Amino acid sequence: MPLDFLKRKNTSDAAAPVTAAPTGSTMLPEEVVAQDYILKLYYAGKTSEGVRMKTGPNAMVELPSMLVGLAKSEIEVVDPLPIEFSQATPTIARPSEAMQWLNAHHVHSPITRHALVVLESIDAIDLAFDTFVCSLLDGEIDTSGYPEYNAVIGGIAAHWDEATGDMICRAVVGWGGRGVRGDTDRIGAKLLAGLLTNVLANQYAMGLTAVERPMPAAGRGGLVCGHCGFASAHERAFYCPKCGMRLVRG
Ligand SMILES: [Zn+2]
To answer: What pLDDT digit, counting tens, does each position of 124-157 carry?
Structure first.
């Protein structure tokens, strides 16, 4: 039994609608022919155990020296983010978070921005409490200055231990983008070991320690440091992420 729409097609004349495709079928085929689109982004990284450091006025100043011999670009220091950037996330589909992120980090080099995108995306660092000292460690940059997908970036992430107030340093490396190469993991592991060696060789190092990252505590937050005026972005700090002095309830 013929279908109605086929009948109509057979009666076509000069007044037929121009939208009618002369050879196409409006029947749903048994299999839909789909064109696939895909983008595989691969981000990876490694962090070391923590190294407890003797706290003091020089603790922060020492951090860039821990990249000496490994850095292949300028060594940049990324400070913890103050409260106005507490939602900063490198996710462009979330404009409010993305704008905060850009406002916080547009001053940094392409290498450091790439490092922050990779390492924040995989949660290897958290600028709510980490100070991050960063450089290119291996591989090439493109003509715009951004690391290639197999370039290794990283350095030292430091935070203040909530229990003791000591500074804890971790070696951090990361890489990634539109591609992956088999030997990058091995290169990253070697660089991580090199960074950790540098940290342990520092005059203020007291030895390896288990890393307990600061945990959320309900009802606190937005604390302003009485020593340096830094407004902490997270609700967890006993110690000012910026200067390491004990925070007091505002
Ligand atoms: Zn402070």
So the answer is: 999 988 999 999 999 999 999 999 999 999 999 9
Residue 234, both tokens: 């997270």
From residue 67, give the alpha-carbon distance in Å to each of 62, 73, 114, 150, 191.
Answer: 10, 10, 18, 20, 10
- pLDDT one-digit tens code per residue, 30-40: 888 899 999 99
Nearest to 214 by CA among 50, 45, 44: 50
What is the value of pTM for the model shown? 0.80
Distance 221 CA to ligand 1 centre (A): 14
Q: Rounded to 10 degrees, what is the CA torsion of 44, 45, 46, 51?
A: -160
Cα of 247 from ligand 1 centre, angstroms: 8
How far is ligand 1, taken at its centre, from the CA of residue 51, in Å? 22
